[in-house]
């Protein structure tokens, strides 16, 4: 429905009992319902498609911090005037109800009344609204299916199907039976659906540890064998963090298991941290530690010949090409003095280092060396 239609209809809607809420008994009935749907304590409420601000005003009067959004400048202006006349401090924005112009702000409630069925893509709008909620927030959607010559709107069953991808719990409250809400008896379908989106899953990444073991200008590398990943390529001694283990303890354990080197925790230094991703894989966080055999950790030996076909020293300033790409990028960054690096492969990239291929390494701070 166009902005021009809403502008032309604003007066009619504001004076109708079920939109303008001018009848005291109708207004009191909606205030009571709204109080049952909104949080008990003051909350941030986003009223999308707020029209002339009837529900925004009720929410503000109940102590909530309200932001209204409507695509019609005239509607938004009427809402501002209504809220200001009542001493409210609600903010009213002009914009698309389906994609509210609120930036990175988040809300405890997204409220919509007779709006969703008018939007070109209701499913996308619901996803957008759910994304604007804080953890524990809720959607309060007042809709229905009504009309005599031509029935319009959206049924509760249809809305339940649309909202299922983003809602963990929904509750439908049928409203047609209560004439106080409409100022008259009605026989069509009218309802409120309160939905609580599924909790957002916290982002999780595997943590791995790597050892940059130096001997003068050389660095220790091992050739991978029968591991199922990057076999035949050179890589620094490395492994995964185990439950209950810190990264320093993990690299000490991995160094001992793979090379027999016994690292002194007091001499172990963090060289760089890299978020890396294999082609088609998930991202990981890699901690690279540095140590030097001259500090008394012992001479390395290949203690896992079933996983490593070769263990040897290679010049840091002339690294071999047959290396795992992200390890090569980490050692290059280490040599430049970079401490925080991204190396996120795209699908189709080679796991191995390829001279001339697009670099996936991105330093997150200036080099500490000139």
Q: How many structural domains are formed by the residues?
A: 2
Q: Which percent band covers the strand fraction? A: 25-35%
Measured as a percent range, the helix fraction is 25-40%
Approximate shape: elongated
Give the full name of the CATH homologous superfamily of the largest domain: Vaccinia Virus protein VP39
CATH architecture of the largest domain: 3-Layer(aba) Sandwich
Structural class, judged by helices and strands? alpha/beta
Radius of gyration: 31 Å
Query: What kind of sheet is the major sheet?
Result: 9 strands, mixed
Distance between the termini: 61 Å
- In the CATH hierarchy, the third-tier topology of the largest domain is known as Rossmann fold
Give the class-level CATH name of the largest domain: Alpha Beta
How many strands appear in the DSSP assignment?
17
Written overview of the protein:
It is elongated and about 90 Å long. The protein contains nine helices and 17 strands. The longest helix is centred in the N-terminal third of the chain and has 14 residues, at 24-37. Strands 9, 10, 11, 12, 13, 14, 15, 16 and 17 form a nine-stranded mixed sheet that branches. Strands 1, 2, 3, 4, 5, 6, 7 and 8 form an eight-stranded mixed sheet that branches. The chain has helices spanning 3-15, 17-20, 24-37, 54-61, 73-85, 122-131, 156-163, 247-259, 325-336; strands at residues 44-48, 65-70, 91-94, 107-113, 133-146, 152-153, 167-174, 189-197, 206-215, 218-224, 234-235, 238-240, 269-277, 283-292, 308-315, 340-344, 361-363. The protein is α/β, with parallel strands linked by helices and 370 residues long. Mean pLDDT is 89; it is low at 1-18.
């Amino acid at each position: 429905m166009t902005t021009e239609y809403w502008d032309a209809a604003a007066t009619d809607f504001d004076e109708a009992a079920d939109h303008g809420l001018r009848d005291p008994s109708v207004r009191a009935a909606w205030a009571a319902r709204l109080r049952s749907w909104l949080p008990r304590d003051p909350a941030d409420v986003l009223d999308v498609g707020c029209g002339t601000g009837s529900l925004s005003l009720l929410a503000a009067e109940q102590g909530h911090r309200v932001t209204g959004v409507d695509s019609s400048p005239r509607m938004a202006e009427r809402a501002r005037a209504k809220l200001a006349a009542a001493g409210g401090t609600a903010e009213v924005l002009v914009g698309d109800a389906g994609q509210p112009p609120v930036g990175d702000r988040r809300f405890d409630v997204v409220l919509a009344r007779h709006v969703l069925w008018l939007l070109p893509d209701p499913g996308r709008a619901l996803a957008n609204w759910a994304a604007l909620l804080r953890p524990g927030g809720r959607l309060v959607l007042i809709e229905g299916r009504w009309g005599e010559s031509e029935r319009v709107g959206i049924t509760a069953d249809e809305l339940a199907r649309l909202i299922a991808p983003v809602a963990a719990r929904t509750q439908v409250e049928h409203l047609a039976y209560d004439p106080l809400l409409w100022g008259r008896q009605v026989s069509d379908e009218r309802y409120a659906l309160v939905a609580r989106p599924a909790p957002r899953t916290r982002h999780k990444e595997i943590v791995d540890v790597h050892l940059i073991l130096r001997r003068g200008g050389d660095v220790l590398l091992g050739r991978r064998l029968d591991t199922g990943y990057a076999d035949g390529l050179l890589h620094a001694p490395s492994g995964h963090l185990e439950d209950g283990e810190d990264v320093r303890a993990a690299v000490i354990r991995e160094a001992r298991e793979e090379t027999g080197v016994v690292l002194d925790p007091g001499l172990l230094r963090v060289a760089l941290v890299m978020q890396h991703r294999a082609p088609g894989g998930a991202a990981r966080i890699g901690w690279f530690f540095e140590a030097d055999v001259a500090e008394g950790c012992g001479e390395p030996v290949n203690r896992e010949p079933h996983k490593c076909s070769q263990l040897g020293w290679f010049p840091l300033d002339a690294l071999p090409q047959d290396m795992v790409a992200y390890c090569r990028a980490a050692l290059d960054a280490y040599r430049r003095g970079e401490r925080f690096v991204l190396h996120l492969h795209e699908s189709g990239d080679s796991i191995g280092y390829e001279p001339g291929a697009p670099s996936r390494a991105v330093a997150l701070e200036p080099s500490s060396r000139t």
